[in-house]
Amino acid sequence: xxxxxxxxxxxxxxxxxxxxxxxxxxxxxxxxxxxxxxxxxxxxxxxxxxxxxxxxxxxxxxxxxxxxxxxxxxxxxxxxxxxxxxxxxxxxxxxxxxxxxxxxxxxxxxxxxxxxxxxxxxxxxxxxxxxxxxxxxxxxxxxxxxxxxxxxxxxxxxxxxxxxxxxxxxxxxxxxxxxxxxxxxxxxxxxxxxxxxxxxxxxxxxxxxxxxxxxxxxxxxxxxxxxxxxxxxxxxxxxxxxxxxxxxxxxxxxxxxxxxx
Length: 261
Known about the structure:
The protein is an alpha/beta fold and 261 residues long. It contains 8 helices and 11 strands. It folds into 2 domains: 2-47; 76-219, Ribonuclease E inhibitor RraA/RraA-like (Glucose Oxidase, domain 1). α6 links the parallel β5 and β6. α7 (224-248) packs across α8 (251-258). It is elongated and about 65 Å long. The relative contact order is 0.16.
C-alpha cells in the first residue's frame, strides 16, 4: 500500500498527473502522425480522380480563358488538332515522342507500346510525331489497349488510322489528320514521360489535358486547382447569360449584368 499512499500525497498526485498527461500527449501525437501518414498515402489518388472529374464538367473555352487570365499565356492547341468523333474528356498527360528515322529494326517502336501498358487510369496519351502529318501515330490496336487500361483519350501531333474501329469502341482521339499509313520502319521511339511538343504547346508528363468540341487545352499541373476554380466561375456566368439574352433579347444587357463575354 505504500506506493499507493505515496501517490496519494500532494506531490505524488502532481507527478502522477504529469505522467498521465505526458503519456496521453505522446500517444495522441503518434495517432495523429499515423492518421496523417495514412491520409497522405491514400489521398493522392482520390484527390487526382476528383480533380479530373471536375475538369470533365467544365468547357475547354472556359479553361482556356482561365489560363489566359491566371498565367497570361496561350495554352490551347492549334486548330488543326481535331477529334475523330465528337467527344469530351480530361486526364493526366502520358507523353511519348517518335523521332523520324528509316530503319529495319523490329524493336524500334517497342517503347511506345510499353508506355501504354504502364499507363495508369485517367491517362491521356500525348504523342509528338516529328513531321508526322501524313503518318499514323496510332490506330485501333493501340486504342484498344488504352481503352482496356481506362485511359481518358489520346492526342496525337500527327495522323491517326482505324478511325471506324476507334469510334466503334468509343475511344476518343484528337489528331491533325486521318491517314492510312504506318510509323513502322519510318520512326523510332525517342522516349516517354518527358516534355513534348503537341499542337503547338509544350506538354509535360502529368499536365492535365482537357478536350471537347472546341479543342484541346493543356493545364500545368501546379496551376490546376486555381484554373479549375476560375473556369467553373466563367462557366457559371456564361450559362447564366443565355436566359438573360433570350428574355431581354440583348447581349449587351447580359454582359452588363454578368460581366462575361
